[in-house]
């Protein structure tokens, strides 16, 4: 099996930043790429802050912090994205992802593997746009990537068994628990979880409960995070995008219709934690 030493992470937002941090923590050489310099700087600061937190907790020492941090190259130059594996975590737009992968394939050699962190775009459709390459699959991390253990590894119709085996091994080498799944709208977790968000927003639309009450009750009943806090963490645009794709791809059933409340939040650019306001306000 191909030995993976370097990982390029494209997109330095909520997910890309977390994936880059994990990869550096687990000893990989990391290239963290984003087109937006402000986001890149934010990612650099966030990684440092998270590593400092680990030092304060006694999980790593100062030397380890420096070593981990020095493994990451933060760049806005796509030509730096040469690696054994490229993980894409940019905006949830099929055309943008396909364009980026095309450029990445031209930059990299014939043995580089490519993975998308998409939450909901069909990996088969992306593979078709990528000349049905056998070196491509989904690698769906969860938010926050440094903490969440699960990775859904999604096979396309063209992924070779070697590609899937290498991405499964990479997930394990990143301290994660990989689950290989098939390409279907929302894969597994996002399909099941859709109702958690949608039913909560229906309760608000019907004026049956408050946001704070719903979150509090769901947490008290055993869920780690209430649906509104979770949507703010995920990002309203991302979560709304997933709802739309799952709804469309499953033939627009009423039970999965995206919520007008969430649509309004996206239109108002109240995207959650990343913009300082979503269902809640953040400092
Ligand atoms: N947020 C979540 O909870 C979550 C969880 C799992 C998977 N995902 C998926 O991960 C991906 C990223 O989501 P996110 O929440 O990190 O988004 P985000 O909005 O926080 O970050 C996206 C980043 O992509 C950058 N970008 C856009 N076009 C680019 C390009 N052509 N090249 C390089 N960078 C580009 C933007 O500048 C931005 O920094 C999406 O596909 C999403 O569906 C998100």
Commentary on this structure:
This protein has 283 residues and is of the alpha/beta class. The chain folds into two domains: 6-181, Rossmann fold; 190-275, N-(1-d-carboxylethyl)-l-norvaline Dehydrogenase, domain 2 (Orthogonal Bundle). Helices cover 47% and strands 13% of the residues. The protein has helices at residues 14-25, 37-56, 62-70, 94-107, 123-129, 161-173, 189-205, 211-220, 227-234, 236-249, 260-267, and strands at 6-10, 29-33, 72-75, 85-88, 113-116, 136-141, 150-154, 177-181. Helix 1 crosses helix 2 and helix 2 (37-56) packs antiparallel against helix 3. The longest helix is centred in the first third of the chain and has 20 residues, at 37-56. The N and C termini lie far apart (47 Å). The mean pLDDT is 96. The protein binds nicotinamide-adenine-dinucleotide. Nicotinamide-adenine-dinucleotide (NAD) binds at residues 10-16, 33-36, 39, 89-92, 96, 100, 117-119, 140-143, 234-235, 238, 274.
The average pLDDT value, as a whole number, equals 96
CATH superfamily of the largest domain: NAD(P)-binding Rossmann-like Domain
The oligomeric state of the chains shown is single chain
Summarize the helix and strand pattern as letters: EHEHHEEHEHEEHEHHHHH
- Strand element count: 8
Distance between the termini: 47 Å
The number of helices is: 11
Specify Rg, calculated over alpha carbons: 19 Å
Short summary of the structure?
With 283 residues, the protein is α/β, with parallel strands linked by helices.
